[in-house]
């Protein structure tokens, strides 16, 4: 009887593995330390076509993104790559945690991604990178990608799209409990982001530098940097 059960369980496990998977990935820390932890967990995994990767932004304070890049250029958004935008979890944390679902559309090539947050230091260079369907070792592996990332000093702040190369999302992260701010998302415009509470706060802090304030409206990078500063101040 026990042997029958064991064989039955093994068969079911094999069947489940063959079907589309749902893979849960933690974004940022799960600890109560200031600024969270700069990591994706797990940071390397395999996923077949149709599998959904659910990125769960930590309910703890922090500000992170999931942005597609390339092996040789780990901390720069890939042209035509996917992007979640930045999700800011305020001081005190929130529940439930915002989620972002990414569906694998081409499992024949490795997919690389990073977090493009710069505050308090670039998360990408700190090791906040991940791989999907990458070799387990050697060229193209997570370690290879991570080593490339650690040699960088900056992260690109360009905004990608929901539809990426080899994986796509159909919506921005959500749900967004009170206090959570989403900005620089493919689905949102700079105008609507600027009218959010974070945008207003960034605008206030920018008045000390009139030049920055006038540019902020038109330069997404400056807006993002200001918003990042505000998010850091909130941590
Ligand atoms: Cu991050």
Automatic annotation (TrEMBL):
InterPro entries: Cupredoxin, Ser-rich/MCO-related
Record organism: Lentinula lateritia
Signal peptide annotation: 1-18
Protein name: Extracellular serine-rich protein
Keywords: Signal
């Amino acid at each position: 009887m026990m042997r029958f059960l064991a064989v039955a369980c093994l068969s079911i496990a094999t069947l489940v593995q063959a079907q589309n998977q749902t893979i849960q990935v933690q974004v940022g820390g799960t600890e109560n330390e200031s600024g969270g932890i700069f990591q994706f967990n797990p940071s390397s995994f395999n996923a077949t076509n149709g599998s959904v990767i659910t990125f769960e932004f930590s309910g703890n304070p922090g500000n992170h993104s999931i942005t597609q890049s390339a092996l040789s250029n780990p901390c720069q958004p890939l042209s035509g790559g996917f992007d979640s935008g930045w999700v800011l979890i305020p001081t005190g944390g929130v529940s439930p945690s915002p989620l972002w679902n990414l569906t694998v559309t081409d499992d024949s090539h490795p997919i690389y991604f990073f977090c493009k947050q710069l505050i308090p230091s670039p998360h990408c260079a700190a090791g906040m990178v991940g791989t999907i369907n990458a070799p387990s070792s050697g060229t193209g592996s997570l370690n290879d990608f991570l080593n490339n990332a650690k040699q960088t000093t900056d992260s690109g702040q360009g905004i990608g799209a929901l539809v990426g190369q080899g994986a796509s999302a159909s919506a921005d992260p959500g749900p967004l409990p009170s206090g959570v701010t989403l900005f620089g998302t493919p689905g949102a415009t700079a105008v609507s982001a600027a009218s959010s509470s974070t945008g207003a706060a960034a605008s206030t802090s920018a008045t000390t530098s009139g030049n920055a304030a006038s540019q902020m409206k038109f330069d997404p990078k400056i807006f993002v940097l200001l918003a990042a500063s505000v998010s850091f101040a909130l941590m």
